[in-house]
Amino acid sequence: MRRKDRAITDFDEIISILERCKVIHLAMISDGAPYSVPVNFGYLVTEQKKVLIFFHGAGEGKKVSALKTNPKVSFSCVADAYVDSNYADKSVACRWTCYYESVIGFGKVRFLEKLEEKTIGLDRIMLHNGYKIPAGLKNIMYNTMKLAHTSVGVIEVDEITGKRNKKRV
Predict the structure, then answer these.
(1) Phi first, then psi: what are they for 40, rounded to 5°?
(2) What integer is the mean pLDDT of 50-71?
(3) Mean per-residue pLDDT, 100-119
(4) How far is CA 101 from CA 9, 11, 58, 110, 144, in A?
(5) DSSP secondary structure letter of residue 167
(6) What is the DSSP code string of 37-94?
């Protein structure tokens, strides 16, 4: 990272940013060329502080084909991003900048095959995006037929970093 002064090294701070993001941009190689898609996601931090990021989609298509050919990925997400000037005189273009908090990571994708595994991944996605389990139920209920045709991938994250540029007050 070129701007070391913007690096976030605290793991819990990085996870806090990830929690506030609703979409990751998943980058991969497809037919020898870069390919990036925005996907909604959910995540899990294991006791060993290993990050697992879950995403879903159709059981076939360009994304699935690319990831089955080469499971190496990069992902990024941004929270609280906006462009502004930190100066009273906002007429000077070079005084404008982007303020943000972001997470970038690298890992490998594995597709979940068992219905129980898919359910865990989909639960993480649903709960991360604000789903509340209805009163009286212990689990999120899915249509078994649709679940069988849904692709659920997990990124087993090897490296994760954070970066921020906060406006000075």
Answers:
(1) -75, 160
(2) 94
(3) 94
(4) 13, 14, 30, 27, 38
(5) P
(6) EEEE-EEEE-TT--EEEEEEEESSSHHHHHHHH--EEEEEEEEEEEEEESSS-TT-GG
